[in-house]
Amino acid sequence: MKKVYTIFILSLITLLAACTPEQENPAEFMYEHLEEAVSIERAVGEKQDPLTEAEDNELEWYKEMAETSDIEEIESLANQAIESAESRRDIMIEEKEIIDEAFEEFQLAIPFVEDIEEQEVIESANSMIQTMEDRYDTYQQLYDQYMETIDMDIELYTMYFQEDLTTEQLQEQHDIVNEAYQKINELNREFNDYTTAFNDSKRSFYEISGLNVVFND
């Protein structure tokens, strides 16, 4: 089983100078919500290391289960792997809560598009918004697939407790899990591509809107 799960998070951009009250720019109000969404999502980074560590541990325990015939050792390894998989479930729930909160904050920026007058700026804003919505939709698919795959992992680990388990049955479940992780990796790449695209579109939106910002390259 090859487990790879690393999601890119949004990039933070720092405002240098605000517009004066006489020169209110709707893009500046959008900026406040967009960058707050980024700040919220930064907490996702704290979930990546424990998630990767759990995946790596399970992979190692799974290999050890396949290489030993000692029943007690197999049970011990399987129980550790199951407990680890459940911990990944908890981490993913926490991660999703952060992603959802950040997206809700992002959505607070959308109504300000109605106050923009320049067509070029409107188009840039709408492109940025669409990219973020596609990114969020992809994350929902990624989350659902990952949670389903955790169940598949647990089923695979549990199979080692079955006295009448055949090599064919084990291989079949192993293949099912591998296929599921391939889907996760595909969605993971798609999500990361959307993250990069959104960061680029947000930067472009700020530039076209005339906001005086510094970009963290």
Average pLDDT figure: 92
How far do the termini sit from each other? Answer: 36 Å
Element-by-element helix/strand order: EHHHHHE
Spatial extent as radius of gyration: 22 Å
Report on the structure:
With 217 residues, this protein is mostly helical. It is 74% helix and 4% strand. The chain has five helices and two strands. A two-stranded antiparallel ribbon has the order 1-2. α1 packs antiparallel against α3 and α4 runs antiparallel to α5. It starts with 12 loop residues before the first strand and ends with a strand. About 2% of the residues have low confidence.
Give a brief outline of the structure.
The protein is mainly α.
Task: Produce the secondary structure layout.
Elements: E1 13-17, H1 26-41, H2 45-67, H3 71-107, H4 119-159, H5 167-209, E2 212-215
Features of this protein?
217 residues; two-stranded antiparallel sheet; 74% helix
